[in-house]
């Protein structure tokens, strides 16, 4: 499901851990990530809170950002563009593994 402003990820490929990670990155780095509007899981009340398997239906409501899949785009990029993208990715990874967080 999507609209011009929001995308809803759901099913086995969505997890509350992903939502928590997006929030963490947005609050503590300058890495651009979609804004998280809400996330929840619905399932059996007696389930282990840390078990995010298939029994829960998980929904993540995030900002919709139009773009292209880098895996599909990579082969069409010039070497200069690939270098720019690699430099950006290296910078972003560096923010995640800053001293004290590794």
What does this structure look like?
The protein is of the alpha+beta class and 102 residues long. The protein folds into 2 domains: 1-66, no CATH class; 68-102, no CATH class. The chain is 34% helix and 19% strand. It has 3 helices and 3 strands, in the order E-H-E-E-H-H. The protein has helices at residues 16-28, 70-73, 79-96; strands at residues 6-10, 36-42, 57-63. It has a 3-stranded antiparallel β-sheet with strand order 1-3-2, with helices on one face. The longest helix has 18 residues, at 79-96. The protein is elongated and about 55 Å long. 6% of the residues are buried.
How much beta, percentage-wise? 15-25%
Taking the sheet with the most strands, its summary is: 3 strands, antiparallel
Overall average residue pLDDT: 84
Helix/strand-derived class?
alpha+beta
Number of helices: 3
Strand order of the largest sheet: 1-3-2
- Low-pLDDT stretches are none
Distance from first to last alpha carbon: 36 Å
Q: How many discrete domains?
A: 2
Helix content: 25-40%
In terms of quaternary structure, the protein is single chain
Q: Rough shape?
A: elongated
- Radius of gyration based on Cα positions: 17 Å
Number of DSSP E strands: 3
Q: How would you summarize what this structure contains?
A:
Helix content is 34%, strand content 19%. By secondary structure, it is of the alpha+beta class.
Question: Topology, please?
Answer:
Layout: E1 6-10, H1 16-28, E2 36-42, E3 57-63, H2 70-73, H3 79-96
Please give a handful of descriptors for the protein shown.
single chain; 102 residues; alpha+beta; 2 domains; 3-stranded antiparallel sheet; 3 strands; Protein kinase domain-containing protein
């Amino acid at each position: 499901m999507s609209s011009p402003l929001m995308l809803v990820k759901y099913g086995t490929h969505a997890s509350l851990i992903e939502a928590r990670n997006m929030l963490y990155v947005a609050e503590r780095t300058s890495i651009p990530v979609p804004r998280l509007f809400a996330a929840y899981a619905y399932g059996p009340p007696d389930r282990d809170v840390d078990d995010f398997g298939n029994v829960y239906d998980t929904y993540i409501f995030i900002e919709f950002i139009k773009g292209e899949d880098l895996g599909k785009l990579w082969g069409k990029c010039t070497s200069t563009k690939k270098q720019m993208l690699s430099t950006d990715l290296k910078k972003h990874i560096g923010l995640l593994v800053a001293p004290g967080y590794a």
